[in-house]
Amino acid sequence: xxxxxxxxxxxxxxxxxxxxxxxxxxxxxxxxxxxxxxxxxxxxxxxxxxxxxxxxxxxxxxxxxxxxxxxxxxxxxxxxxxxxxxxxxxxxxxxxxxxxxxxxxxxxxxxxxxxxxxxxxxxxxxxxxxxxxxxxxxxxxxxxxxxxxxxxxxxxxxxxxxxxxxxxxxxxxxxxxxxxxxxxxxxxxxxxxxxxxxxxxxxxxxxxxxxxxxxxxxxxxxxxxxxxxxxxxxxxxxxxxxxxxxxxxxxxxxxxxxxxxxxxxxxxxxxxxxxxxxxxxxxxxxxxxxxxxxxxxxxxxxxxxxxxxxxxxxxxxxxxxxxxxxxxxxxxxxxxxxxxxxxxxxxxxxxxxxxxxxxxxxxxxxxxxxxxxxxxxxxxxxxxxxxxxxxxxxxxxxxxxxxxxxxxxxxxxxxxxxxxxxxxxxxxxxxxxxxxxxxxxxxxxxxxxxxxxxxxxxxxxxx
Length: 463
Fold this sequence. Notes:
This protein has helices at 18-26, 48-67, 79-90, 103-118, 148-157, 200-212, 218-221, 234-238, 244-256, 260-285, 307-315, 321-333, 338-351, 356-366, 372-383, 398-405, 410-415, 448-462, and strands at 3-8, 29-36, 73-76, 94-98, 122-126. By secondary structure, it is of the alpha/beta class.
């Protein structure tokens, strides 16, 4: 074809970008476009940290496209109307895009396809965000998996698509009108500082560093608080700065160069990639999880309504040092250590008895790497209501979790300055003398043992 449009959504890279590569093969000229949504400030699924990272990644993408002879076009408004208008202006025969794994993206794809078809054009969608998507991983009877372990075994048996190269050249017509690259102010948000460097180049460097060393100790270090033992690639996969195929195959290649223990650690990392796709397919086949408990018998759970407790949790003022450190890390950086995500989620739902949907929303509004499917899956897992959930009687104790994963208080002291001069031993159990751990730091807002018993009572009541 003469002209095609590539619609960027969550694939901000020129390396191994399935739809972009297809458009470059099939059309003489390609119009790369990003459509800026028109929602303002109050939004359930995102916030300043992620929008700032997105804007930086778009600026980086524009630079990468210019380096190969193209540029990023920016349009605003509803995607379906903006894309039809752009197709008419450029006489594009088709719009190419990578499929979105969540139901909001799916709905948008359906609307865009309908409007383009009415205009005599087509939408071509491609698999890109997941190694295996939607209906590829099935039970022996052709059903959908609801438990991770058998899903992961079936996933591992499937042939894996290879990663493609980076584009070297992309022809784009001259004279196409474009708006300015967005900034957080477009959505009424302040620019967020403290996050990771955005863009494909920075993401590729993070991957390189992780696979050069830390991945070989991943199983031993990923839960240690205060240490850099995780991959820190979640936001890069979320925004498509890296392709899942490249991450997987490079991890496999790294495993081949390690000893037996190192290979085992690499596979523990790959298991986390499989968890990501497991939650994609849960959201795809059971979209009701965004509003309701996955396990239907817990849909009558009794949740408290206490704005004061909720705000204390959000702000890191609970009197539980581990919980407060984690929430302050999140608020300051747009990131939270994965172990801390479980601890804070269980604290909100099983110590404070507040609805998991409140925490899910807060995380999505503060995390740079907020992925709707994974975030929902993680919150329902922690609350004991989800797919492959932690049994409701598994209730993490913030004090014992500190003893296991931050015994020297390194993580806590990094994020809670009031506790810098306090002996780490005081972080391992509730104060017995009725006095705060340090001046200016609150007493624990609840007694963990008492609230654990209350959680067990509530689950037994509905289960």
